[in-house]
Structure formats: structure tokens, C-alpha cells
Design goal:
With 296 residues, the protein is mainly α. It folds into two domains: 65 residues, no CATH class; 196 residues, Orthogonal Bundle (hpI Integrase, Chain A), CATH 1.10.443.10. 48% of the residues lie in helices and 6% in strands. It has a three-stranded antiparallel β-sheet. Helix 4 runs antiparallel to helix 6 and helix 7 runs antiparallel to helix 8. The radius of gyration is 22 Å and the shape is globular. Keywords: DNA integration, DNA recombination, DNA-binding.
């Protein structure tokens, strides 16, 4: 079908730089060929529009009814997450940067995404009032984050001690905590309206989800550029990655470490067990191992 072929290869006249503003003569609707998922999403939008036009009697029929549906499936075996080694390369680059306010905020973004599995929109919306103090098995302070996710559903996500230290370092650099407030319970001193991720010039002004995405995507791209020469495969994977991949990396690491899938479902706020099940690769690996033993 021509529309599908167009989305896969829009042609030079439809492609422009991402940086071009909509009012610019250089603006174009595409940056390049759409990824399979994006093409599928575009089809669904157009199909839905045509179905609505039929319902309101603007069209007599929906031409999409005669078009074979494209597959929704990802390529076999693909999970959009970073491997442990790829994450180590990203983390090493973040740690190598001077501890400026921008760098501390960027480190917090990545560790918040990995350690909690939060979506970037949830990270942008998070406030200090979401923090909940509890005690662990040893009676030590332990923080949770009460996340408001899709559909307004709330879930409590545990925060690791390391992530809490990233929060404290970020807020100290923002001037919201003084140097003496290094203990975990120092987060109690924050104004409840304080965003966890804020503009550098105004610590009370939250970041937009698009800005969170942009900064994290840029950091991933720069990391890929840095390691291109000595690890081209990792660089290619990191360059493709988006902030949402950290959510999938969280799920993959949790399951591979033997974590309970029910707990993971609660942490990620999935409505269905089937969604969480994509992170369990044990059956595929067992099949591969047994085939290798027999035929390898």
C-alpha cells in the first residue's frame, strides 16, 4: 500500500532537521523514515479518523476496511532495553562529568528512570509531596515514591539508598538543602511542591516531559559518540535508545535478578500480567540452551 511505503520512505522533500521550528521554511513533517511502531501508530490514527467519518456519515465507507492489517509484533527476541554493559557505559560517562547542577540533574534523571522504571512524564510530574518515609527491616529510614501514573492510578515505588543520595546531592546543589542535611530524612525539609526535576534557574519550576526526553536523549547520543571507536555495537544500541528504554531495562534487570513478577508489575504500574511478562526471557533462553546442547 502506498501510504505504508510513504511512511517507510517519505522522500527528501518531506524530511527536515529536528531543530527547525514550524514557522521556518526548513520545517518538514518528518526527520526520516518512521520506525515500525510509529508507522503502526500513524495507521491506527488514520483508520480511526476514517471510521469516525463513516459514523457521522461524512464518508459512505471506510477504505481501510479492505486493507490487510500490519503486524503489531516487534521483531522476534527484541526488547528495547540496555544490557548491563551498555548501561555501565552510559553511567561511566555521566560519572565522568564535573558535578555541575546540570550534570547532577542529568544523573538523577537516569538513575530515577532506571531504579524506579518511571515514565518520563511521571518523572516530570513528581513532587516532594510524593515522597513517603518508611522503615526497612533494620529500622533504617527507607523512602517510597507514591507515583500517579496512567489513568490516575497510584502506586508506591521503593527508592534505593543510592537514588536517595542522588536526590539529596541534586537538591543541595539547587540550594534547597544545606550542607549539613546529608541524611536520608533530610528530604523532609523540602517544600512539598518542590519538583524532583526542575529548571536550573528556578528550582520550583517543573520540567516539561519533552525537556526531560530531550536532555536524556542528547546524553545517550553523546555517550554513543564517545564509545563509537572502541565499541561500535554498543554505540549503535545506545544511540537508538530513548528514556523509555530505562523503564524496560529496569524490568529486564529485575526479572533476571530473580525478582517477583507481581512486585515488578506493581512497581511499573502495569494493568496486566501479560505486559510484565515481556521481561521474562528465561523460557527463550532455556530453549536456546537445550537446542545448543542437542545440536550444537
Amino acid at each position: 500500500m502506498e501510504y505504508r511505503r510513504f511512511l517507510a520512505q517519505p522522500g527528501p522533500m518531506w524530511i527536515g532537521p529536528k531543530s527547525a521550528q514550524r514557522w521556518s521554511e526548513h520545517w518538514r513533517p518528518f526527520e526520516g523514515p518512521l520506525a515500525p511502531r510509529s508507522r503502526r501508530a500513524a495507521e491506527v490514527i488514520v483508520m480511526s479518523m476514517c471510521a469516525w467519518l463513516v459514523r457521522v456519515r461524512y464518508l459512505d465507507s471506510n477504505a481501510w476496511d479492505m486493507v490487510p492489517r500490519s503486524s503489531r509484533a516487534l521483531p522476534l527476541g527484541e526488547l528495547r532495553s540496555l544490557s548491563d554493559r551498555q548501561w555501565e557505559r552510559v553511567e561511566a560517562r555521566l560519572d565522568a562529568q564535573p558535578p555541575t547542577p546540570a550534570t547532577l540533574r542529568l544523573r538523577l534523571m537516569f538513575h530515577l528512570g532506571l531504579a524506579t522504571g518511571m515514565r518520563e512524564a511521571e518523572m516530570a510530574a513528581a513532587r516532594a509531596e510524593w515522597l513517603r518515609l518508611d522503615l526497612d527491616e533494620e529500622g533504617m529510614p527507607a523512602w517510597n515514591l507514591r507515583v500517579t501514573g496512567k489513568g490516575g492510578r497510584q502506586r508506591d515505588v521503593p527508592l534505593t539508598r543510592r537514588l536517595v543520595q542522588h536526590l539529596i546531592a541534586h537538591f543541595r546543589r539547587q540550594g534547597l538543602l544545606d550542607g549539613a542535611q546529608a541524611q536520608p530524612n533530610a528530604l523532609f525539609e523540602l517544600d512539598p511542591a518542590t519538583p524532583l526535576l526542575s529548571a536550573l534557574a528556578d528550582p520550583m519550576r517543573p520540567m516539561a516531559p519533552a525537556r526531560v526526553y530531550e536532555l536524556m536523549k542528547t546524553a545517550l547520543r553523546r555517550c554513543a559518540d564517545d564509545i563509537e571507536r572502541d565499541d561500535a555495537m554498543a554505540a549503535e544500541r545506545i544511540r537508538r535508545a530513548s528514556p523509555h528504554w530505562l523503564r524496560h531495562t529496569h524490568g529486564r534487570k529485575f526479572v533476571e535478578a530473580g525478582g517477583d513478577r507481581g512486585i515488578l508489575r506493581q512497581n511499573l504500574g502495569h494493568a496486566s500480567d501479560a505486559t510484565t511478562a515481556i521481561y521474562d526471557r528465561s523460557e527463550a533462553r532455556r530453549r536456546r540452551r537445550e537446542v545448543e546442547q542437542v545440536f550444537g
